[in-house]
Structures are given as structure tokens and as C-alpha cells.
Specification:
This protein is of the alpha/beta class. It has one domain: Vaccinia Virus protein VP39 (Rossmann fold), CATH 3.40.50. Helix content is about 40%, strand content about 20%. Strand 4, helix 5 and strand 5 form a beta-alpha-beta unit.
Length: about 260
Amino acid sequence: MDRLDFLTLLARTSPRNVVFTSAYLTPLPLDRHSTILEVGSGLGHRSAWVARSRCCPVYAVDQNSRCLDLSKQKAEEGGADHLVKLVQVDHYQDLPFSPKTFDLIMMEEYNVQMGLVACVDKWRHLLKPGGHMALSFPFLTQKASSPEMKVSTPEIDAYYLKKIPDIGILPLSAYHEQIASLSGVKLVHQVQLGAMVWDEYYLDMSRYLKFLVKKGDIKESDALYQEIRGEIDFFKKHLRNRVSVQAFLLNVNGL
């Protein structure tokens, strides 16, 4: 068993969920005439759900062939295999699609390792006139009461520089400044991932990890156990109440 195998056993593969995705897509009149691109589609839950709920084709793009195999399975299980189109790419900066192809480009998993400005610059030509991008990024919150909780830490900076090398982790205001600096881009809607969702996700992860140990499928000495346990502990120590995720729905001039 490796990390991908473990994630497929969970109810969801990240703190983000269908409620979050639905909340930022609500303003868009997507229907069977729409065409959607999801960049960094991961295990395919979201692409399958969007294709089925909007009754339109979704191109699910990822670098990992195993993720795409699992995405195919999710699409088949959800009755959306005729709508989900799987595309493997070597990198996300130069996607193999013609200009003015998509009504919406989604990026919710930041394994894409590109910042907001880079995503808009590299992908905007793929949008039809009047098209939209829905981009999600982690940000530093300002909700904690003690002064030391209101700033990043070296551990958080290092963690997110691995995930988003060109920007790392930013406060929410910095993303708004970036959006304002982009020509032909308008912020239409934004949604924040609820704090309780993070706790629920890592609690589920912890419970399932204990279950697998009790069942004998993995041992506490195994590398996978150490990796997952380390992620849970890192969240508790460094990320809880310091970091959240914001989805930005942008109207973008696709030219």
C-alpha cells in the first residue's frame, strides 16, 4: 500500500469537498453546452461529479497516470465515463488544447505548483470569450487571537514552497492584489473552505490509519504510516487556524 492506495480508501482525498466546489461554481450557468477543463484532477472525484451534475464534458488533466486510471474508475462508478475525458500531460504550463476551447478552467488541487498569476497567464488563451477560471489556493488566515498565530512560520513557508514554488503561502489580501493587477480579469465570486472541514478530514485520516494498523494492513514502523502520521501532526502543530483555502472565480478575457 502507498499513499494513493490509502487516499482511495477515504471518503475524500483532501479537506476540500463537493460542498466547497459547488459553492464557487453556483454563479455559473453551466449546462450540456459547456466544456470544462480541470487541471490537476487528482483521483477524479471532482471531475466526475461536475460532469454528472452539469451534464457536460470535463477534460481531466493530470501528470500521474495512476491518478488518471483511478479517475476513469470514478467516472465509471458515477455514470459519467462518457463525459469525462482523461488527458495525461508532462507539465501544466503548456496544455495541449486549442485556443478558445473551454467555458471554465478549474484548478482546486495545488499539486499543479503554479501561482494565481501564472495560471491566468498560461491558460487564459484556452478560454472562450467571457470564460471563467476557478482557482483555489491556500492562504494565511487572520482569525487567530494571539499575535504569534497571525504570521507564518518557517515550517509553513517551507511546506508551501514545495507545493507552490513560485509563491509559497500568502495572506488573502495578496491574492486580491494579484487579481487586481491582471488585465482583463474580474473577481466574480470567492468561497473560503470552512475550518471545521479541515479538522474532520484529518480526524478521518487518523481514524482510518489506526484501523489499518489494528487490521494488520500496515505497521507503525512502515514508511506510509510515518508519512501520514507526520502530515496529521504537522496540521495540528502548524496549520490549524493559521491556513485555509480560498476559491477565486474569475471572469477572464480569453484572448
